[in-house]
Amino acid sequence: MKHQFGAPIAPSSIQKEAEGAQAGCEVTLLERIVGELGLASKRPAVLIGSGQNSVAYEFAGMILRLPRHAGAERDLLREAAALCAVRQLIAVPVPDVDVRRIDGQLVSLHTKIAGMPLTDLTGLTIHAQKVLAADLAAFLKALHSVPTASLEFQPTEAPSSEWRRLLAQCEAAAFPLLSHGVVTHIREDFADFLTMCDTLPSCLIHGDFGSGNILVDHGRLSGVIDFSGCGPGDPAYDFASLAAGFGDRFADLVLEHFALDTAVRHRMRFYRMTFPLLDILHGIENHDPEALHAGVNAFAM
Length: 301
Fold this sequence. Notes:
single chain; alpha+beta; five-stranded antiparallel sheet; three-stranded antiparallel sheet; 10 strands; 46% helix
């Protein structure tokens, strides 16, 4: 779960490169990184993603990511450790990440995995959706079965401590931007959740199992990326991410392969409510008005 935020790391260098504004520089940060990694090629690096947490390039069949802020750096290091634990225990391809620091910038490099990021369900028939849903269910079952003891990192605090910290951040920064009625409901939901979160089932979860992190090739799951939020957690969090990214109807096709009770679905609703709160906090912390407005607008609907 991505509840950590930090000061931007070299934001001007990354942002200018993402926008193509380094044309007048003799040697850009990206060029220095490419040279250090020994990826000399006549083909230029292609910007393939510029999100809240990192900038991603494709270069010579490799994927290069540059985290934008301190929280994203911590997530990247966690991701590398988590992938070491899960790679040999699941059948679906996942990145084999090489992490290093170049000119003060933490970077990750891995071979490109076949397939395209699934961002929506456009063009997929109901039959194709069911086939893909079965693939996703099989992946989640395998991931959720990986022993958490195999991780190099272990939780140092109870889940309630992390959620109370998130609530405190919301009280200070997000709630002043929302209506009184919305804030009242959110506080009530948090109060109910905090009474039980330390007793919830825990397994290894992806932590951001939604749009853009699922790779598909010819309608079948071909890989999963971005394990930066991977760690011990409630499996309902992954189900909630899936529903938030692709809608309840598709999520239900995946959940047909699990035996879920109403308590799991109730927690899914709680987790989905927190996602726009995280957008608001990220927008404030990292001066990202798009994320901020998206989070606020989610509560105005």
